[in-house]
Amino acid sequence: MASSKLISRLTTVTRVLLCVVFVTYGTVKLLGGQYDYGDWVISNRTADGTSVVWAFYGYSPVYGRFTGLYEVVPALLLLSRRTATLGALGLFAVSLNVTVMDFAFDYPMVKYFALAYTLLCVFLIVQDRERLMSAFWRLPGPDASGAAPATKTRWPGRSRRPSA
Q1: Domain ranges in the chain?
Q2: CA 163, CA 107: separation in Å to the nearest integer?
Q3: For the chain, how many helices (H) and strands (E)?
Q4: Contact between residue 79 and residue 22 where contact means Cβ atoms under 8 Å apart
Q5: For residues 2 and 48, is the Cβ–Cβ distance under 8 A?
Q6: How confident is the model at residue 9 (pLDDT cuts 50, 70, 90)?
């Protein structure tokens, strides 16, 4: 009982923390920050990997704003219990992309923060594993009488039971 209460509190704290972090990052992108928008010349002799990545993302201000939306919308979904699973799945995709990019381009310390955010998203997803398994991989069970669930027919209002 006490451990389930602790897990519930940790889940809530994790949801709020991820929401604050990703709304902050996303808002900066929506307002035109973080990426290098403007005229630039890239030379393979003078530009490091970080500058190339920021210039690439900043090449299109529209794309840069969309990356902000990809962070803000799922983060806000974490605030409601009803939509928290969807938000966690969305942020997992975003944070995994950021983590891989940070490690691939060898960003300094920030790559470990990105990894921590990805693992926190995994923690949230694991908390809802039963619901996700039921929704995507398990077939509906038999009804109270033990009969298999009815299958749909072409005719409205009629159903048929599979033969045994």
Answers
A1: 2-135
A2: 60
A3: 6, 2
A4: no
A5: no
A6: very high
